[in-house]
Amino acid sequence: MQPDERSDRPATPVTTIGDLVAAVDTVPCPSLVVDNGAVVHASPDSCRLLGYERADLVGRSIAELVAEPPSPSAWPTGNGPAPVQLDDASCTVDVRGSDGLAIPIELTTRPVALDTRRLAVVALNDVGARRREEALQRAVDELERTNRQLREFASIASHDLQAPLRSIMGFAQMIEDADLLEPPADGWLRRIISATRHMQALTSALLTLAKADEGDPTGFASVDLTTVVDEVVELHDATIRELGAEVRGEGLPIVLGDHGQLVQLVLNLVGNALTHHGPDAPIVAITASRRGRCWRISVSDNGVGIDPADQERIFEAFNRATQGGEVVGTGLGLAIARAVVHRHGGEITVESAPGAGATFTFTLPAVGGDLPAVPSRD
Question: What is the distance, to the nearest Å, from the Cα of residue 167 to the centroid of all Cα atoms in its chain?
Fold first, then answer.
């Protein structure tokens, strides 16, 4: 017989009850020593599980501890609780704890020979904890399923809205170019064009947000953040020139990630700094420092700053800020930034105060570092 083959192993004999008690107290499972259905010893773990002092358990029968005793055939021996120690067997019952609440317990009995007595060790397996874990996993699975459905809906809705918006914008611009309208109708047309542009930006941002956590992180590749910043500066070129802004990257590393998403991440953070600038020309500095197997990236600006009370909710979707008394942006830029960082296994935070600028800090995996967990998908 191999060492791990125990199914046919006979009950282990012990010399004294003291030996049996000592053995029970060392096993990692809550256990009781039972003689003819009555508890003669309770391990410390079993006392903690049930909430009793040892003295409150000793002398009581197993049947007394059960909240609603099952029919005799449900007990391991098939003839009631008294001889529960006679055979290797198990059953699941609700055991009443010291607080009166029922705890679902799987009772597993193992006979032990001691002189002429036939005792048993009854192991107590808290199946309630397992059921709670299973219920939690079911809730997590359902949440992931719901989130997938929401992402799919946002993606489809955003994509399908683009075509009619393009039509509205096209016809509106044709009317504007033809100069067919007089006041106040021409003003109404400009408001239609402005609202349509905002809707186009919003649907585009929704599509980006819906796709932000798609893909397998094992497909990540080396990404040079200096190149990413160069691309972002080029994309923001018109705004940078208009504001006389300066965007600079200093000592930026090569990280592991999705190039397109990292461009979107830095684009949104730099765009946020350019939008919420103060009276001086915007200055945006992007720096990095190594933290173990990750890089810590900071994007700092000299803008208007963020009230500490708002620093958590700014990452929520559709949270739009005001600038000069006007609501600006789509309210999705920082939500997209957070989704991209999370997909790369990192976290993003902000440090700021009104009038003192803001520093957004996030982590990205270093080349050779740990990949983020692969998101579960059906």
Answer: 40
pLDDT tens digits for range 302-350: 999 988 887 788 888 766 665 555 545 567 889 889 989 998 999 999 9
Inter-CA distances, 21 with 15, 46, 116, 120, Å: 11, 13, 17, 11
In this prediction, residue 102 has a pLDDT band, given cuts at 50, 70 and 90, of confident
Residue owning tokens 């006392």: 47
Mean pLDDT of 281-286: 96
Residue 167 in tokens: 């039509």
Token pair in block for residue 191? 């408001």
Place of tokens 């008690």: 21
The residue assigned the tokens 């005001």 is 322
CB under 8 Å to 114, separation ≥6 — which residues? Answer: 13, 14, 16, 17, 20
